[in-house]
Specification:
One of its GO terms (biological process) is tRNA 5'-leader removal. This protein is of the alpha/beta class. The chain has helices at residues 35-42, 80-101, 122-138, and strands at 30-31, 45-48, 52-58, 68-72, 106-112. Strands 1-4-5-3-2 form a five-stranded mixed beta sheet, sandwiched between helices. Strand 2 (45-48) and strand 3 form a beta hairpin.
Length: 141
């Protein structure tokens, strides 16, 4: 069975494009875009792992609901190709882990590390994110 957004076999013409939106079954994650949200997370809790740094903060009651996540990689990670690859891998890790291990009402910022984030095995990357989330949320208790 083909996904609902896939064109029928033999009918893949330039006018038949699938939608650009993600059709993930998991809970939607809102992406942080404002600099002020990144700065608020930078002043909150943080946990480093071998492949990334995770900053997390619990939002105030009136600031919205759901899990929000941001991604960043400095020029220390490498050129634009390396930074984009690292951010793509962080996005996929967040998409896989945050719906199960993240908490509603929290902001998370995932920061890539030089030469590690882009090259670390994917399973290890997921384990690093789970570990960081456990440590960040354990400090809350």
């Amino acid at each position: 069975m083909t996904p609902p957004e896939a064109p029928e076999v033999g009918r893949n013409h330039p006018g038949n494009k699938p939608p650009a939106a993600s059709v993930c079954a998991s809970a939607p994650l809102t992406v942080l875009k404002k600099r002020s949200d990144f700065l608020k997370a930078a002043r909150a809790r943080r946990q480093g792992t071998s492949s990334m740094m995770v900053q997390a903060r619990k939002r105030a009651p009136g600031e919205g609901v759901g899990i929000r996540v941001g991604f960043t990689c400095s020029k220390k990670v490498g050129n634009a190709v390396a930074r984009n690859r690292a951010k793509r891998r962080l996005r996929e890790a967040a998409r896989a882990v945050l719906p199960e291990a993240g908490r509603d009402g929290w902001d998370y910022v995932l920061i890539g590390r030089a030469e590690v984030t882009a090259n670390r095995p994917y399973d290890a990357l997921l384990d690093d994110l789970r570990y960081a989330l456990r440590k960040v949320h354990a400090a809350e208790k």
